[in-house]
Specification:
The protein is mainly beta and 170 residues long. The chain has 2 helices and 9 strands; from the N terminus they run ββαββββββαβ. The chain is elongated and about 55 Å long.
Length: 170
């Protein structure tokens, strides 16, 4: 599962509405978030994904022997990673202090797209559903206007049969 902490993210789209949790009506917000990371982040999704999408440059790199900067098939374009809704903790850091953080501990990652880029980079586009209170809802409108903020995403409970890095390889 993809995780990141305090990396630059962009809030591209915000949709706020109501939904029912049993008898309770709660505010829900769908966030479309973009984050660019090194291609070694693909290993968290699948150990075979990075070598499938990227080639080495043919030179020996003793510092990073697994460095793969070249996209193998750029014609693929954006790739949708198939996932069920994942329980995650998501947050924005709006300033330099902890009290400036906007945290959503009961968020859901509902969609994950990735775009391999030359130079060993990947742009991820995520759909995250959060449940803000009134103040947080207003703050989200402000985040939408910002070019970039720091964001954090952490999986709460990995799905059964996860083939990402950290699993038992036999």
């Amino acid at each position: 599962m993809l995780n990141f902490a305090n990396v630059p993210v962009r809030l591209l789209h915000l949709s706020i509405g109501k939904e029912f949790h049993g008898e309770d009506e709660v505010t829900a917000a769908d966030l479309k978030i973009e984050v660019e990371m090194d291609n070694d982040s693909l290993d968290a999704l699948s150990g075979t994904l990075r070598p499938s999408l990227f080639d080495a440059d043919g030179t020996e790199d003793f510092v990073s022997p697994n460095h793969r900067p070249h996209v193998r098939n750029p014609q693929l374009g954006t790739i949708r990673w198939n996932l069920d809704s994942q329980a995650v903790a998501f947050g924005f850091l709006l300033g330099g202090r902890k009290k400036d953080a906007m945290l959503f501990p009961n968020a859901k990652l509902t969609r994950l797209d990735l775009l391999p880029k030359e130079g060993a980079r990947v742009t991820y586009t995520l759909r995250v559903r959060v449940f803000p209170n009134e103040t947080e809802g207003a703050q989200l409108m402000g985040v939408l206007r910002l070019n970039e903020v720091k964001g954090t995403l952490a999986a709460l409970d990995p799905p059964d049969g996860d083939e990402g890095a950290g699993g038992d390889d036999e």
